[in-house]
Amino acid sequence: MKLPLQITFRNIDHSDAIEAKVRERAEKLDRFHRYIMSCRVTVEESHKHHHQGNHYHIRADIKVPDRELVASREPDEHHAYEDVYVAIRDVFDSLRRQLEDYARLQQRKVKTHDGPAHGRVVEIHPQRDFGWIETGDGRLVYFHRNSLVESDISTLAIGANVRFDEEMGEEGPQATTVHLH
């Protein structure tokens, strides 16, 4: 990495063990792409539960030439991220897959898909006319209001299952058509 790793703790005391795990996983990313310019990781404790485990939100942003890759893991209704180390593992596994995809794209070794991809809506910004779809392998794909087929962004819900066609845009993968299913 060109710039030092940045780790931020929110609503949680600094932990040397958590920091060491994040540093270990971030260093391994250099194996998948040698031009990582920076990496920022936020470790946040979402809720304080006295009788149940705490819930963790982990977000990591890495910058490579032409692109910023983002992976985020938040606790869901099944409490999958009551263990901060599981959340860290999943975020860095997602970043690794994104870096591998990015490296294949740079080398022009991109897989072709037989049909539309499937994913779920994870972020919507109706006031700004766009949102994000997470694919089954953890990649984030941008979509614009105009790519929605037979639906409107104002009625779209987070968690909605969609199928979509994808192309590489100027800022990364983007959906050209998005169908609810």
From TrEMBL:
Signal peptide: none
Gene3D superfamilies to which the protein is assigned, alphabetical: Nucleic acid-binding proteins, Ribosome hibernation promotion factor-like
CDD domains xref list: RaiA
InterPro entries reported for this sequence: CSP_DNA-bd, NA-bd_OB-fold, RHF-like, RHF/RaiA
Residues of the CSD domain: 119-179
Xref: Pfam families: CSD, Ribosomal_S30AE
Protein's name according to its UniProt entry: HPF/RaiA family ribosome-associated protein
